[in-house]
Write a structure and sequence with these properties.
Chain lengths: 213, 213
C-alpha cells in the first residue's frame, strides 16, 4: 500500500487530495488487518490517517464506501495480460488473481466489501459497477481470441472472464479456505475447455450468464 | 418456509423445541424480506416469532448464528440427483441451484450469511463446515461417474461440485445481478467439459482446489 508521506513539491490541491486519499485508504487497510471489518469505524480511520472525521464523512460517507474504494484501488494491481493466445491469457490472469488473493490482506478487503454490500445498497451498486467494468476490460482477451478463431464468434466475453474468477470468490467467500497454488491453473484449464465446449455461448438461452445487457 | 403452527399432538419437549426453531427461522426469513440484514436484530426476531429474547440469546447467541442456521435449513431444499450419468446429475443439480437462488429470499439469506461470516469467526466456521459437508455429499455423483468411467479416477469430487456452484455465488455476491435461467445449463456444460479436460485432477499441483484435506 502507498503511504501518506508528502512527496517534495507535491503541494497543489490535487496533490493534497490524492495524499489524503492515500492516507485514508492505507489506514482502512491497516485497520482491517488489525481488527477486521467488525471493528472498522470512521473514528478509527480518522485517528490512524490523521484526516479529520468531518472530511472522511464528507468524502466517503461510510466505512462501506471506504472498503469499496480500497478494493477498487488494490485490484488495479491485477494486470490484464496479452500473451498472444487465449490459454496463455487465461493462465496469466488466473495466476495474477491467485497471487492477489493468496495473501490475507486482499481476502479481508473482499470479505469487508461483500459484507458492506449486504447492508448498504450504495456499496452494492459500487461493487456491481466495479466488477462490470473489470469484466468488460478483461473481456478484450476473449474478443482477441474470437478474432484469432480460437473460440466461436458467439462466445460471451464477460461470461468467460466471470467463469475464470468465480472459483476464487467461491473459495474465499463460501468454502472460506485460503487460495492455494494450483487454483489458478485449474481455473484456466477449466475455462479454456468450457469455452471451447460452447458453455459461454451468447444468447444460447435466456439470460445467458454475463451477457452484455 | 415452515410456520410456527402447532401440529396436533406435537406436545413433547422435542416437538416444542422444533416448533420454537421453526418459528424463529421463519421470523428471521421474514425480517430479512422486510428490512434486510442491516435491520435484523434479536429483538425484532423475538417480537415476530413470539419467542423470548432470553431463549434466542441462549440458543443462538447472535443474528449471525441465526442466518447461518436459516441458510442450512433452506439449502436442504436442494436435492442431490442420481440420474445415472454425470452430465445428467450436473445439469439436475445446477438447475436446482438455479431455481433456489432464482428467488430473492435465498439470495438475501446468502448475502446475510456471508456478511455475518465477515464479522463473526463462529459464523464463518459454521459456513465453512456447512459447505464442506455439502461438497462431500454432492461429491457422490462424481465418485459414481468415476466408477462408470465417465471421468478419470484422479478427479477431485469436491472440486467438481465447487466448480458447479461457483458461478451462482459469483453472480449473486460479486456481479450482484439476478440468477437468470440459463446459468445452470452453462455451469453444467462448463464443468462437464472441464472435468473431462482434467481441470479437477487430484494432487495435479500443490493445493489443488477442493482437494480432500
Amino acid at each position: 500500500m502507498t503511504t501518506a508521506h508528502q512527496a517534495p513539491g507535491e503541494t497543489r490541491p490535487g496533490g493534497r487530495t490524492a495524499r489524503t486519499r492515500r492516507a485514508v485508504l492505507t489506514a482502512v487497510s491497516e485497520e482491517l488487518d488489525d481488527g477486521g471489518f467488525a471493528a472498522l469505524t470512521m473514528e478509527r480511520v480518522a485517528q490512524r490517517s490523521g484526516v479529520h472525521l468531518a472530511t472522511l464523512y464528507r468524502r466517503w460517507r461510510s466505512v462501506d464506501k471506504l472498503v469499496c474504494e480500497l478494493l477498487t484501488e488494490m485490484s488495479n494491481d491485477i494486470p490484464l495480460p496479452d500473451t498472444g493466445s487465449l490459454p496463455g491469457d487465461l493462465r496469466a490472469l488466473a495466476d495474477a488473481i491467485e497471487r492477489f488473493y493468496g495473501s490475507a490482506g486482499p481476502r479481508r478487503v473482499l470479505e469487508a466489501v461483500v459484507a458492506a454490500a449486504a447492508r448498504d445498497p450504495q456499496a452494492a451498486s459500487a461493487l456491481r459497477t466495479f466488477f462490470d467494468e473489470r469484466l468488460t476490460l478483461a473481456g478484450a482477451m476473449v474478443r482477441r481470441a474470437v478474432a484469432r478463431r480460437e473460440l466461436p464468434p458467439d462466445t460471451d466475453p464477460k461470461a468467460v472472464v466471470a467463469a475464470l474468477g468465480a472459483p476464487f470468490y467461491y473459495r474465499i467467500l463460501i468454502e472460506r479456505r485460503p487460495v492455494e497454488p494450483g487454483l489458478g491453473a485449474s481455473a484456466a484449464t477449466a475455462v479454456w475447455a468450457a469455452a471451447r465446449a460452447g458453455a459461454y455461448a451468447l444468447g444460447e438461452h435466456d439470460g445467458a450468464p454475463g451477457r452484455e445487457d
